[in-house]
Amino acid sequence: MRDxxxxxxxWTASGEKVALATVVSVVGSAPRAVGATLAVSxxxxxxxxxxxxxxxxxxxxxxxxxxxxxxxxxxxxxITEEQNVEQIxxxxxxxxxxxxxxxxxxxxxARSIHAEQPVVRATVITAPPGRDDLLGAQLFAxxxxxxxxxxxxxxxDADARALAxxxxxxxxxxxxxxxxxxGGEAEVFFAVYPAPPTLVIVGAGHVSIPLTRLAKVLGYRVxxxxxxxxxxxxxxxxxxxxxxxxxxxxxxxxLPISSATAIAVLTHDNKFDVPALAFAVRSPASYxxxxxxxxxxxxxxxxxxxxxxxxxxxxxxxGPIGLDLGARAPEEIALAILAQIVxxxxxRPAGRSEEAERARIAxxxxxxxxxGTAERAAKxxxxxxxxxxxxxxxxxx
Length: 397
Fold this sequence. Notes:
Helix content: 25-40%
Number of domains: 3
Shape: elongated
Strand order of the largest sheet: 3-2-1-5-4
CATH class of the largest domain: Alpha Beta
CATH superfamily of the largest domain: NAD(P)-binding Rossmann-like Domain
CATH topology of the largest domain: Rossmann fold
Radius of gyration: 25 Å
Strand content: 15-25%
């Protein structure tokens, strides 16, 4: 619901009723993932999407029914051999279930989202015969055991609280679970809203400006750190959530760094890079990358070893930073960096293969008129094992 919240708040502030449709399960291929939402206002305005257009007409119609009558409904869409393909369904062949409800008080969830506090919204989406009163019942769970709302059944509340706490601890993904209750079973959808991912950019240079903009588009909280006052200005970084004019390692020591944090070191100056990287590789950050050519990295790595950073920690640095997109302009380099951060966040390969690295080095040597040394240059490519993906494209600043 995070993506449709501004529209929902605007509609409710004007006194309109709102229906919310949420993808609660996906089987096979589907345009949108579990948790995707669509909101419809009483006046017929639409925000968000549950399928990219395939089933929206039916969902919107059901949303208007929910607004008028207050009754929640669980819709199922997909194509089977028995279905006429002209009926509303998914052209990709997958199957989704969409829960449509008239939205009650959105304020509790909105407060947590605006405060960037992790929260889980548990909603009953199916109930035993005779227990339709449970449909749409909600419970909100926050860090520290802060629980509000009820699912309408004491045993169900207990089960939901336990799972919600587990999802908060593990920063889990939205999911649906079935629990036994008196008279049968109830299915509960857990919409997980973790704190937004954070990107800490060390260095307020030319690449950092488009990187900040792109990261904000993807929902990152962006912190820019640079000790140079002339670079770290609001005029240059109007979209940054925080702009810190101080030594990077000191700033990093004060920031709340977690597994949802990515750190990109872009100063290209060892007096900033080395202390910042020495701190970053020992932090819980899930991504640490640094700009610089191969020669720059070798010299910097030696300095890191001198301050006690291990070879294993150095191997965890994505460098040279960014996927190999052939980037040249600052905006292209920023795209390559953010693409690598996103790939790493989702457990995807985040760099080129060793063979590609060798071929690139050999081609570069040959192009420079050193064909006789091309083979030797290729042999100097870094050999990588389990963390090969950490060495991505060479981005020059």
